Amino acid sequence: xxxxxxxxxxxxxxxxxxxxxxxxxxxxxxxxxxxxxxxxxxxxxxxxxxxxxxxxxxxxxxxxxxxxxxxxxxxxxxxxxxxxxxxxxxxxxxxxxxxxxxxxxxxxxxxxxxxxxxxxxxxxxxxxxxxxxxxxxxxxxxxxxxxxxxxxxxxxxxxxxxxxxxxxxxxxxxxxxxxxxxxxxxxxxxxxxxxxxxxxxxxxxxxxxxxxxxxxxxxxxxxxxxxxxxxxxxxxxxxxxxxxxxxxxxxxxxxxxxxxxxxxxxxxxxxxxxxxxxxxxxxxxxxxxxxxxxxxxxxxxxxxxxxxxxxxxxxxxxxxxxxxxxxxxxxxxxxxxxxxxxxxxxxxxxxxxxxxxxxxxxxxxxxxxxxxxxxxxxxxxxxxxxxxxxxxxxxxxxxxxxxxxxxxxxxxxxxxxxxxxxxxxxxxxxxxxxxxxxxxxxxxxxxxxxxxxxxxxxxxxxxxxxxxxxxxxxxxxxxxxxxxxxxxxxxxxxxxxxxxxxxxxxxxxxxxxxxxxxxxxxxxxxxxxxxxxxxxxxxxxxxxxxxxxxxxxxxxxxxxxxxxxxxxxxxxxxxxxxxxxxxxxxxxxxxxxxxxxxxxxxxxxxxxxxxxxxxxxxxxxxxxxxxxxxxxxxxxxxxxxxxxxxxxxxxxxxxxxxxxxxxxxxxxxxxxxxxxxxxxxxxxxxxxxxxxxxxxxxxxxxxxxxxxxxxxxxxxxxxxxxxxxxxxxxxxxxx
Amino acid sequence: xxxxxxxxxxxxxxxxxxxxxxxxxxxxxxxxxxxxxxxxxxxxxxxxxxxxxxxxxxxxxxxxxxxxxxxxxxxxxxxxxxxxxxxxxxxxxxxxxxxxxxxxxxxxxxxxxxxxxxxxxxxxxxxxxxxxxxxxxxxxxxxxxxxxxxxxxxxxxxxxxxxxxxx
Amino acid sequence: xxxxxxxxxxxxxxxxxxxxxxxxxxxxxxxxxxxxxxxxxxxxxxxxxxxxxxxxxxxxxxxxxxxxxxxxxxxxxxxxxxxxxxxxxxxxxxxxxxxxxxxxxxxxxxxxxxxxxxxxxxxxxxxxxxxxxxxxxxxxxxxxxxxxxxxxxxxxxxxxxxxxxxxx
Lengths: 735, 167, 168
Description:
heterotrimer, A: 735 residues, Aldehyde Oxidoreductase, domain 4, 3 domains, seven-stranded mixed beta sheet, five-stranded mixed beta sheet, 18 helices, B: 167 residues, alpha+beta, 5 helices
């Protein structure tokens, strides 16, 4: 099938080649198999084509045997789309080469009583939260298809079997294909229960399959929110008050309004100014010409220095919410022969997705539609309804492919902005794109924290008590205050919890106290890949390393002693250490560091190798990662995620820092917010320790061990203990 | 009205002289494969070829590109993804979110034209594009695959494709 | 549909209402029948919710009808969700609503708000904002002067940030 991508001008007065038809981008892969990329749905069209049969909500079968698998979660590069399709296809027993995918819309989900469940994609949950019901969906569809064939042949379904989309009746040798029986199958009553395959029998799931969405990303055909074209569409640029909590005071549009292509210069809500023009470039440059006066509000003088002082004070505050405790840590520490105490810090950081925030909205009093990359389609739909005032039934959101998410696109702030703009020009689609500067300064930042760790030691180098006091920002207090109960934000303690399948500490410490003094600067926080696991792993893993060195113990040996009751944590640590060569001599000038943690249901560990020159220049050479996510749906994509999350975490550790001066974020683009590039990227080896029996996440957990493994290696290399990030601001010369 | 030679065709458009080439390509000419990532030539998502030279089009005023210059965008590399660099990228499942990959592929193509057997240091020096998903190691491997005649198995990733090939 | 304007401020002791901006009512009917697509099928209520409703009803049977409950069916953030309740009643001395109560299914506590009304209220219409911990049913109850009780139940989907699903 030829791509129907419009390569003519987008500005030919609404008669563009992309009219109100399905906009289907497809391409062929070598070998002739057909792989569909996402189609960009336009107003009023139904899901799938008229001749297809929806066997159940998860599976649509076309007469030509091609299968459309419905995917509820959002693909943002993490491979969840392909992984979920593998799980459905595994149970469906269809021909994998004939599989395509589509996103049901959140409006359809609401209208159909949430038949596709939760759309939210984050917390490394895409596969692990939905695997059970999507697999059942595939199994149910297969059962119905086989039953339809059996009914046609008037035989028992138990005498038929399905494989690769073909149903055969052994005794008579008759066969048919899914496409031929799909219509009949769709009329059958779904089975009340279905049996799922044992993972050891998997033939598609668990395999190193190529992703379904690769080819269009190599040809420029993949459409992102930035690229959307709709008939009659206009473009918008926006500026929100750069001081969080401030408002718009006034603006002078004289220089902007007369510029070519400019349609409107307008206020948006209380806090922003936007320009709508025929092209985005014209909108953006016109906006730059608007003279804006801000009422900077109560936070106009906030600064990083101020935050530092407040957070530091929290380290010794008498009141704190307890996340994990056993025994009496304070008493044990007070009574101990020896004490070690260190203070660490972790800055604000930006997600910096490659594609800046964007949404396209079209409003009429009868209907409001939004096209946007989002990690949470239902939240975006709710936000659309709230912003335009129309009930949910009159709204719709079409999910587009994300140019990165990392947590930032779980928020719907830019959706609301686009809807407010669209309300100003009913009937006209308005595509709102944030400039990189807007994206850098209107983030939802990795929260800022400090941590004081105090350990009591006995004469044999054992930890008698450990107090870990975290001081700093709570994401939930800003975003979901209803979930802060009795002053405690539970997710502050990711990786440090006493027990549980999600994010538990891997050490047994006789007297332990982990508590949090909440201190919230005005900078809006958000969920940033890894969330609080990132700094918690730095704090604990670097401090355990400090204890090891202070007591002349090997960092691995000390950990092993403390992890006797945590076999899964220990298994990945041992795997990483062994593959990393821990205990074997390293090449000259190369030094190693270890770290382990648990988060998002998975156990992860890393062994990093670094060199540090005499001038203090760091080179991260190699990281070995071990991860146990329980089941592994696509091992080659797990490897890609491990590499990718190391790149993301290492980038943050090396360079990532958003500072505040005069109430505003200082870093406005990649020149002042540098990120990891090819030359910084170490070799990464992944050891997949799939112990089975549970479903752990993959998109995030390994990110958290990158920084502490590197920091521990830096100590080994230089004797200098780095306790503050980012590394670019630290002196790494030999101590 | 102005003219540019883009992907082998003369294209006519209207835009202010200081409009960056990137935005003329994307908006006046409708070629959205070239991406906006930063607008200040820091990220490389906007990389195109002008007479074979890899160029960050977000800071290149369109008025500075003559109609005689040959501009090639990602769409112009091949009609169907068959350029060796594109094929290597697909064979190794390089892209994650994919947003940076148009620029990466344009940069890699130019590198391989200038240095058909690039060393790691050559790759470090030429490939300064940003990828937030962290696909750098597969990019490096894919470049080496192309340098070695397209043998994707060299990367050792053992990826099973829908057509039953493994690379 | 009646446009919904500022909420009536009732005269109950110690109760304050937050007035809403203009919203649709889902439906208002002059008689007992309310046509609404969101009328929730009668899945059994959890015991504690049933008990709270029974306590409000004080022995009287609770019937569906006469009460309209206006709340978004899909909510982005359950922190502060506007909700309003209206009851079909002439609000005369002889025939008026004496109390309106809001209950929920899955918050830490069942009772959300309780409003005391009388004929001087003029209209049986209250509004407030409530927290919703997660997707759940919300039940509005009205007691009439004659002791009879009427109710309306609506399901609200609360989108949760996937990043915190398991912690909550």
